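1st attempt posting a full record on here, be nice pls
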Amino acid sequence: MQFSFYSKLLGSLALLGSVLTLQSNIAHAQANVANYPSKTVKMIVPLTPGSGADIAGRIVGKSLTEIWKQPVIVENRPGAGGLIGTGVVVNSDSDGYTLLVQSASYAANPAIYKKLPYDLKSLTDVSILGTSPYALVVSAESPYKSIKDLVDAAKAQPGNIPFASAGVGSSTHLAAEYFNQTMGIKMLHVPYKGSPEAIQETIAGRTAYYMAPLQTAIGQIQGGKVRVLGLTSATRSEIAADIPTIAEQGFPNFEIGLWVGVWAPSATPKGILQKINTDINKALQEPEVKTAYAKAGITIKLMNLAETEKFVRSEINKYSKIAKDAGIEPQ
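the predicted structure (as tokens):
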């Protein structure tokens, strides 16, 4: 009888200890959310400096530094179409202090690689920083003066004329493949380390064209170093109202855009994810951010966590279809 009493007492104490531990953990987690961020936040951009994601990330990061009263550092980790930098975030602590800032390449990669070095479920969608069209650019000295000129040349030499991208599996790669597919042409893909390199090679005439993010190419466009044959948006851009869209040149359904998003390790507390999303949306409405975005040709897209997740899933499906229809074999 006495043994039974002590056994029950020990069981009750163990249960009480578990409850107290749970309450302590909950309180600790709530404190972490309330105090976030309490130190430097690192944004990993898995692309080169000057890329679309890098530009948007630095603009928003500067504003978040002021909102959070903590440093927000942008760190470039390019390579393998963004896979290297993405892997850094996947393997980081799930505390909200290491975030991924990536372009639509995040959605394009699964369509190109048979096996990613990480599971998509290892990351969770946090926010969309903005969208912009691609500008199909050729060298200012290029013989191609229109979309028709480029398409006619490609049809005359199927598979021989090169086009540039910011890397295998990047969004610029699949945007170009979508263009080639729509036009019924075959061209030779030449991947580079990032957008700056792809643009320079196109300026030099070593590739026929590059599907450049508008914010990346705007300086070369305004400086007369490249010629834009068309934008990939449905309507003209405010920052480049004199440049026609590809759609208005006889391809009314042609539309594909670049976007930049933010991700965090999937085990990051929901409260921290919500705070990051809310504060990014707050930053996007700051006058300085709006002005910088306007100059770069970036359109603001305010989305909550659920809307962001829905958008990213739809983009993954879209790029998968583009790759399949283009006959791209996963590597």
